[in-house]
Amino acid sequence: MLAMLYLAIGTEAGAYTYPQHSEKNRKETRAERRERKRKEKYATEAPNGAAKAAAGNDNKEKPKQPGPKRKQELSYPETRLKKRYRVSVVVPLYLDELVRGESVTFKDKVPDKAAAGLAFYQGVKLAADSLERAGAQLDVYIHDAGSFSESPEMLISNRKLDSTDLVIGAVEQHDIPALATYARKKRINFVSALTNYDGWVKDNQYFTMLQPSVKSHCEFIIDELSRRYAGQTVPLLYRTSSLADDNAALYMLNDLYSDVTFHKLQCNTLPTRETLAGILDSTRPNILAVSILDATFADSILASLARYYPGVHFEVWGMPTWNGIPSLRKQNAYKNITVRVTYPFNFAKGDSTLQLSIQQAFRRDFGGVPSEMVMRGYETMLWYGTLLRRYGTIFNNDYTDLRGAPFTDMKIKPRWDRNGSLLYLENKNIYLSTYQGGIYKTE
């Protein structure tokens, strides 16, 4: 097995009712709501001292109210239509460690650090086969980011990416800056398919994150709480002992467009019944937000709520990492808690015939049942291969074409900073998963 693989391709939630606010904005999308709130905010703000100056001299022209900060226009070079396209997939496989000659160094199970990358590669391989059968003209190169010789920095310095038309990276945060900078310099697209951390990338219209950022998940929760419970106070359980959890809490607490007020409870250690009593009302159902990404710790909080208050119903809004909590899928788990969790993918939807086809192909080529990471690799390769084939190397203005994305309603949008400057492109599609007594559904 080689460190680089070359594929030459021819052508029911509980029935509890909470007091809810007016539904006047129910049909308004989250993006529209944020834009409206942004304009309202700036329309009611005046520069420091401007109001006093205007009041003190009626004969002078009154200062203009500041308008919303203007966002920059994105301009791309003309696309290049080619007979064949080269795609570089950078994924950590750790083949230098796991393969010695013709033998593997592990028994039975692939080590955890390589499992996700291998599954993503398997999905890419299946999609590449599908694209070939559809007549796509692609050359797909797999680079092992777990090998020193094929780390992003070495790939760039050794010019192994110079002829590529697209880079797909299932890489960690520390690998993103080098690939994003390279993509911007070469005016090719780099797609980060694995992590929801941006590597502090700024001003890069060629960098796309398929995993919505934690901030986007928090914005989704804020918008849903604001739509459902505007004007109410919602307890927020948060941690500062973890950087990721601390950031999530700051996103929730500092959101400029929230219509709910948070009653904070710091949970650097597991809260006791007494501390929870200070923010809960045991006489009625309670709505809670929990900005803790650590799934194990979050599960402990859910277990505490169920144990301390078995007769009280809770609606708990949590982080995307909670989808991996095994107890949520157990029958009759946390019967008094409805858990709402954000998540960017929903591979259960879509064409059932295609799902069956992927399962059969995976069983034939690799054995077993395809995992979610296999499906993510498959959809990423299939969608971007289709975009290349239809629109050429610069497909950014055609991101609304989802014909090659059979499962996920991708919504690729610019991510702006507070000054209206571009950071990068990001998939803003987020689904809402609901768990109740072991029953699971996704909206």
Task: Tell me what you see in this structure.
This protein has 443 residues and is α/β, with parallel strands linked by helices. It has two domains: 4-8 and 74-212 and 347-430, Response regulator (Rossmann fold, 3-Layer(aba) Sandwich), CATH 3.40.50.2300; 214-343, 3-Layer(aba) Sandwich (Rossmann fold). Helix content is 33%, strand content 19%. It contains twelve helices and 17 strands. An eight-stranded mixed beta sheet has the order 1-5-2-6-7-8-15-14, with helices on both faces. A seven-stranded mixed beta sheet has the order 10-9-11-12-13-16-17, sandwiched between helices. Strand 9, helix 8 (243-253) and strand 10 (261-266) form a beta-alpha-beta unit. Helix 4 packs parallel to helix 12 and helix 7 packs parallel to helix 8. The longest helix has 22 residues, at 112-133. The chain is globular. The two termini are 42 Å apart. Residues 44-57 have a biased composition (Low complexity). InterPro entries: Peripla_BP_I. It comes from Nemorincola caseinilytica.
